[in-house]
Automatic annotation (TrEMBL):
<keyword id="KW-0378">Hydrolase</keyword>
<keyword id="KW-0645">Protease</keyword>
<feature type="domain" description="Clp R">
    <location>
        <begin position="2"/>
        <end position="188"/>
    </location>
</feature>
<dbReference type="Pfam" id="PF02861">
    <property type="entry name" value="Clp_N"/>
</dbReference>
<protein>
    <submittedName>
        <fullName>Clp protease N-terminal domain-containing protein</fullName>
    </submittedName>
</protein>
<keyword id="KW-0677">Repeat</keyword>
<dbReference type="GO" id="GO:0006508">
    <property type="term" value="P:proteolysis"/>
</dbReference>
<dbReference type="InterPro" id="IPR036628">
    <property type="entry name" value="Clp_N_dom_sf"/>
</dbReference>
<dbReference type="GO" id="GO:0008233">
    <property type="term" value="F:peptidase activity"/>
</dbReference>
<dbReference type="InterPro" id="IPR004176">
    <property type="entry name" value="Clp_R_N"/>
</dbReference>
Length: 188
């Protein structure tokens, strides 16, 4: 599949690995792909993000992804659903961090043991993004998978990255309008 990736899409994947490695994380997830996508310049994906105003909100996106990591990767929608059952995720996080330290639920611990120094691997979410980007490229009869297909895949898959994008006004419809509709899309 990677032979079909454009130079920009490959750079996003490499950037996602770099984010995971810099955080000493075992798994590349969709959030890493999103951060790496936001690093790109002069590509179709970066054009769509710029048209939707996301580059100016990079810190907000990074903080939203970090907040989700502290909730053990739960999206805000999942945390809200648990709250509806009487489970306060914030309280659970606070109690776990009180006993085990800040970041304990996200794996942000220094005692990584045997894993230290190993390269991260693709997690389930990241694999789903890559697979969906392939399907999106095939559906449009595109010969290659570009970073715009990765962005589109991030907007349609459930999870933290898609939720963060939607919270910042970047949806599948708005990205599609920018990329294929010929008009400017407004961020929500």
């Amino acid at each position: 599949m990677f032979e079909r990736f454009t130079k920009d899409a490959r750079a996003v994947v490499k950037g996602a690995f770099a984010y995971a490695e810099s955080g000493k994380e075992q798994v590349v997830d969709a959030g890493h792909l999103l951060l790496a996508l936001m690093d790109r310049e002069a590509s179709r994906g970066s054009f769509a993000l710029a048209a939707l105003g996301l580059p100016g909100r990079r810190e907000s996106v990074r903080q939203a992804l970090e907040d989700a990591r502290r909730r053990a990767g739960l999206s805000q929608a999942e945390a809200d659903a648990l709250a509806g059952l009487g489970i306060d995720v914030s309280e659970i996080v606070a109690r776990v961090e009180e006993v085990h330290g800040v970041g304990a639920m996200s794996g942000d611990r220094t005692d990584r043991g045997w894993w230290s120094g190993r390269r991260p691997t693709f997690g389930r979410e990241a694999k789903q993004v890559l697979e969906r980007s392939l399907r999106m490229a095939l559906a449009r009869r595109d010969k290659h998978i570009g970073d715009e297909h990765l962005l589109l895949a991030l907007t349609v898959l459930p999870g933290v990255a898609g939720e963060v994008l939607a919270d910042h006004g970047v949806t599948h419809a708005s990205v599609s309008r920018v990329l294929y509709g010929g008009g400017e899309a407004k961020a929500g």
